[in-house]
């Protein structure tokens, strides 16, 4: 496993504490999106389709640190958009580390080499570089040539500077198992510390709707990839073994959306990192007022094909905690790649999708307009 022992120990102690206290729902990872703007426009991304006034919004340092204070998760993953576009990100990272958080910055790496000197290596800090396969696969995924080469150069520079560097790899229905396996083989010589791999989520706003995987195709693809991972290839995944076993179709899991709560410029996103169906003002409100049972595979049509780590990793981690022998078996043998798959969750009672994007955008734009108008008022008028 590519997860450091100190991180595994801290998360294990945190889970044990919450299980002893019989906490019904608790987060493992805070997903922090301090901005939506990006310097790429990937065809499978549904995170950047906002008007310019919203793309120009940033969470302040105080708001980012406040989110970490509200949410007790031991891990903070900073995503976006492209977080390196945020000028105050080095300060945010430094202060989150000072709070004792494990911090990962997700980046497409276009700015990583340029900004590397603004950060310091730390045992609890990871870079997570977006790489969706080898050069042809990745450049096609991000809709721009040359990005793969820049990402690889940034990985080398990060390792040379003493940082932990992981990659995150999202796969779509045109992924070929042989190509994916060969790509994963190339990560070890680069010194990559861990690999996060996941199927793409079918964002309703993504420009390309044709290449998302359904659940059956996901399980078949990952079985074929993991078959090729035998024979001592030793890929270091920055994920739990039971989540990988789930991707291979061997576990029937419901998602745990509160395991990865998300704070964006809109607020605390309901219900998860992938779906913005509403926003809460506080973490407490998110946890207490969200109708969690109305979401997830089998409950909501938008969730039908989702098998993404941000929804299911927390489920797998809690399962590993409760069933250590099952976890140990998968750790020793790897995910099973043949035989019958675990039963699928029935979809006959799922509710139809709601489309709320335009409403949330208009509310945010009105908020921005009001704030701008108030800021332009003369001092005596404001009084």
From TrEMBL:
The protein's name in its UniProt record: Hopanoid biosynthesis associated radical SAM protein HpnH
SUPFAM superfamilies on file: Radical SAM enzymes (SSF102114)
Keyword Coiled coil belongs to the record: no
Keyword vocabulary terms for this entry: Iron, Iron-sulfur, Metal-binding, S-adenosyl-L-methionine
Positions of the Radical SAM core domain: 22-233
Superkingdom of origin organism: Bacteria
Cofactor(s) annotated in UniProt: [4Fe-4S] cluster
PROSITE patterns membership: RADICAL_SAM
CDD domains documented for this protein: Radical_SAM
InterPro entries for the chain: Aldolase_TIM, DUF3463, Hopanoid_synth-assoc_rSAM_HpnH, Radical_SAM_PqqE_MftC-like, rSAM, rSAM_sf
Listed Pfam families: DUF3463 (PF11946), Radical_SAM (PF04055)
PANTHER family noted in UniProt: PEPTIDE BIOSYNTHESIS PROTEIN YYDG-RELATED, RADICAL SAM DOMAIN PROTEIN
């Amino acid at each position: 496993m590519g997860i450091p022992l100190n991180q595994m120990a801290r998360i294990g102690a945190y889970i044990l504490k919450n299980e002893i206290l019989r906490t019904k729902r608790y987060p493992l990872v805070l997903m922090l999106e301090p901005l939506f703007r990006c310097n790429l426009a990937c065809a499978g991304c549904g995170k950047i389709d906002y008007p310019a006034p919203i793309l120009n919004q940033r969470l302040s340092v105080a708001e980012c640190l406040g989110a970490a204070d509200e949410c007790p998760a031991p891990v903070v993953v900073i995503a976006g958009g492209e977080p390196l576009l945020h000028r105050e990100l080095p300060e945010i990272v430094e202060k989150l580390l000072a709070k004792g958080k494990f911090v990962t910055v997700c980046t497409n790496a276009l700015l990583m080499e340029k900004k590397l000197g603004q950060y310091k290596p730390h045992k609890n800090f990871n870079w997570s570089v977006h790489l969706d396969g080898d050069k042809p696969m990745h450049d096609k995924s991000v809709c721009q040539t040359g990005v793969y080469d820049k990402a690889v150069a940034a990985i080398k520079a990060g390792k040379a500077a003493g940082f932990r560097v992981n990659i995150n790899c999202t796969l779509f229905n045109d992924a070929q198992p042989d190509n994916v396996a060969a790509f994963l083989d190339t990560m070890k010589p680069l010194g990559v510390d861990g690999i996060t791999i996941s199927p793409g989520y079918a964002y309703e706003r993504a420009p390309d709707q044709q290449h998302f995987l359904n659940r059956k195709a996901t399980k078949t693809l990952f079985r074929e990839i993991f078959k090729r991972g035998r024979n001592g290839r030793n890929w270091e995944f920055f994920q739990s073994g039971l989540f990988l076993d789930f991707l291979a179709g061997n576990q029937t899991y419901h998602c745990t959306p509160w395991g990865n709560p998300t704070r964006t410029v809109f607020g605390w996103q309901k219900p998860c990192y992938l779906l913005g169906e509403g926003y809460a003002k506080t973490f407490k409100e998110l946890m207490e007022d969200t109708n969690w049972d109305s979401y997830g595979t089998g409950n909501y049509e938008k969730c039908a094909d989702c098998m993404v780590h941000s929804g299911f990793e927390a489920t797998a981690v809690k399962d590993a905690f409760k069933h250590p022998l099952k976890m140990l078996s998968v750790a020793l043998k790897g995910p099973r790649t043949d035989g019958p798959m675990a039963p699928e969750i029935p979809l006959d009672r799922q509710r139809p999708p709601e489309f709320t994007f335009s409403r949330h955008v208009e509310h945010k734009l009105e908020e921005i307009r009001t704030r701008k108008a108030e800021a332009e008022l003369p001092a005596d008028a404001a009084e």
